[in-house]
Amino acid sequence: MQVAGEAADLARTVRDEAVTDGAVDTKSAETDVVTAGDRAAERLVRDRLAELRPGESVLGEEEGGDHALDGLRWVVDPIDGTVNYLYGFPWYAVSLAAQVDGRSVAGAVVEPVSGRVWSAALGVGAFLGDRRLRVSAAERLDLALIGTGFAYTVERRKVQAETAGKLLAEVRDIRRSGSAALDLCAVAAGWLDGFYELGLNRWDWAAGALIAAEAGARLRLPGESGDGFADGTLVCATPGVADDLKDALLRFGGV
């Protein structure tokens, strides 16, 4: 929480300069952006962890790192929701998690604009500030509010749009905010009844998934197999709609 909060403060204060011409690059596609703010926030996190937890492994979105799952590793997304950050849309966050053997044991998601701090520790619970979180009591998929996200490549977005269009007829409504970490936190708070997305990286969900799980959500994480979903699919929902949401997504042929 401390280090993620420091990175959030930095991201907020440098935003205007970080998104000016010459400070924005692209990665996997022209719509997949990275700003100077992303790089500065990740560098701060790495420097602070080197001081506070010397010698421990770090995996980050911008600078990469060790992908081995063995042992203790920190996982950082310096700005989850970079397109929102670029446009000044206030739904973006710094996400930082500690994982042991690939499993999240502690995590924090901090929103630079609102100052909200989401946190969880394995077996301890999930919190927004000092308030303990609990998922919604939704029991019917047709009355559920579901979040999702879309990939940067046109081909995958077309498939995801088809799935979302079919699902829209079976749920209360669908939201697309642009930050998987915050959408997972929204499930934890009961602001969403479920969330799904294909193609998330570990830094997108390492902290948010733990927060959702500790608030009572049921999750299907990327990397799991044998259930009909692509390995990179994440599905998170309150227990009352989790099975129905997964069944619907499988019926529609993917996410």
Automatic annotation (TrEMBL):
Q: What is its EC number?
A: 3.1.3.25
Q: Which Gene3D superfamilies match?
A: 3.40.190.80, Fructose-1,6-Bisphosphatase, subunit A, domain 1
Q: Which reaction does it catalyse?
A: a myo-inositol phosphate + H2O = myo-inositol + phosphate
Q: Which residues cross the membrane?
A: none
Cofactor requirement: Mg(2+)
Q: Which domain of life is it from?
A: Bacteria
Per the similarity annotation, which family is this? Belongs to the inositol monophosphatase superfamily.
What is the protein named? Inositol-1-monophosphatase
**Which species is this UniProt entry from?**
Saccharopolyspora taberi
